[in-house]
Give the backbone structure.
Amino acid sequence: MSSNEKHRSRRAIYLGLTFLAVALVAVATVVMYHPFNQLTGQQKREAYIIVQDMVGRTVNLSSNVQRVVTTLPDTLRLVVMLNATDLVVGVTSYVDMGYANKMEDVLAHPELLNSSIARVGAGGEIDVEKIAEIKPDVVFLYAPYSYLADQIEQRAKVPVVCISAGNSPQEFYKGLRLVAKILGREAQAENVIAYFQAKIQDATNRIPKNQSAPRVYLADWAYRYGVGWTTSTYWPLEVAGGTNVAKEAGLNTTYLR
C-alpha cells in the first residue's frame, strides 16, 4: 500500500471516529437534558404515577392530569361523578349521533357539547389522529375495547387507562377509585361511594321478606339506531331485589334488541 493510500485510509478512520463521537455526544445530550432525566428521584415520584388499569396493564402517567379524553358514556360518567368535567377535552362521538338528549351526563353538563371539546370516535372506532392532535394527559378507554389500548398509546403517544364500570358494586367502586387517583379526586370518590352504599342499604332494607323477586325487563336501556335495547348486566336491579329477565334467560350479551 502506497503512502498516499495509507494516508487516505487513516483519514477515513479518523473521520469515522469523529462522526461516531459527535453522534454519541448528541445522544447523550438528548438523554441528559430530557425533562424527566433532569428531575431528582423525589421529583420523579411526584411528577409521575404508575397505576394498574382494570385489565391488568401497567400505565405510567402524569401526577397532574389536566386534560382528559373519555371514549364512551361509561367512562365519562365516572369523570362526571368526580366533578371533573372541567378537565374533559374529548368525548365520545355518540353525543353527535342523536343520543345526547338521552345521556344523563350531558343533560347534567351541557357544556360537554361545546365545540371546543373534541369528538374522538366511539366504541371500537376511535379517532386516534384526533386524540394525538388534542394531546390529552390520559385517555380513559372502556375496558371491553382494551385491545385498542396499546395501539392508541403507540400512535397518539398518550397514556391509556382501561376502565370498567363493573358488574357489581365492588367493581364499580374500584373503577371510580382508580379514576379518582389519576385525577386527584379521591375525597370526592369516597363521598360518591358512601352515597351509593347508603342507597344500597336503604333498598336492601325495603326488599320484602319471604317474597319472590319481581322479574324485570329493562326497556329502552340502550339508545341505538332508534331501536330500544336492553341489557343482561345491570347490578343495581339485583341490589334492589329484582331479577333481570335478560340475564335469567342465560343471554351473555351486554345489549340485546
